[in-house]
Design brief:
There is one protein chain. The chain has about 90 residues and is mainly α. The protein folds into two domains: about 50 residues; about 30 residues. Helices cover about 90% and strands about 0% of the residues. It starts with a helix and ends with a helix.
Length: about 90
Amino acid sequence: MATVDSEKLKKIDEKMSQLKAQRQAIVNREKEKDRKNRTRRLIQNGALAEKYLNGENLPPEEFEKLLKELVNIQGVSLLLKNQNNTSET
């Protein structure tokens, strides 16, 4: 009787381990998919920023200075603030 119960417990433990591994695999796939989507978005947005700000020939440091200057312009900062508010709702 005790052997039967211990075998059942062992099988249940094995099944739990398998389910945990399957769950972790799914979580890992979702994280990877999110990472790839973020990377794609960053590349696309960066390419658009470079295109419209004529930053093709600027080194990253200079391009960052340009972006900082643009963000500090009052009209641009208001536009960005409004854009952020509408995207949050």
